[in-house]
Amino acid sequence: MSAASPLSPDPSGQGATLAVRLVPRGGRDALDGVEADAAGRALLRARVSAPPADGEANAALLALLARALGLPRRALAIESGATQRTKRIRIDADARAVAARLEAILGGTR
User: Fold this and answer.
1) Any idea what DSSP says for residue 58?
2) Per-residue pLDDT for 106 more than 50?
């Protein structure tokens, strides 16, 4: 991924952290590209149709990412931001493979 990537691979190459800005009740489940926050950090824009109540939006986000990245749901977990729009998602998979898949998904949406 490029320097402005929301994906931060672990130094070991086994796993990565993905910075996400989630829009609950977004009408549909989709990944909408990459945006920068006020500090200039890259965030993956994601929307889900689920409401932000009882963890429904978080569960929908993890399911969406698992589906998009071709990973089992158990390979993803919210590392921080469970009650906020900006989240850090831990991905337990080969970092290079995840970066390549994310680049393929977002190639035309940046």
Assistant:
1) H
2) yes
For domain 7-106, the CATH class is: alpha beta
101 by Cβ neighbours in 10 Å (0-12 / 13-18 / 19+) ranks as: middle
Sequence-distant contacts of 45-53: CB under 8 A, at least 24 apart: 45/20, 45/21, 46/20, 46/21, 46/22, 47/22, 47/23, 48/22, 48/23, 48/24, 49/25, 50/24, 50/25, 51/24, 51/25, 52/24, 52/25
Closest by CA position to 31, among listed 51, 47, 7, 50: 47
For the stretch 33-50, pLDDT in tens is 999 999 999 999 999 999
Q: What pTM did the predictor assign?
A: 0.91
Strand extents, DSSP E, 10-57: 14-23, 30-36, 42-47
Contact status, residue 72 vs residue 3, Cβ threshold 8 Å: no
| CA–CA separation, 107 and 25 (whole Å) | 25
Tokens of 78: 């919210």
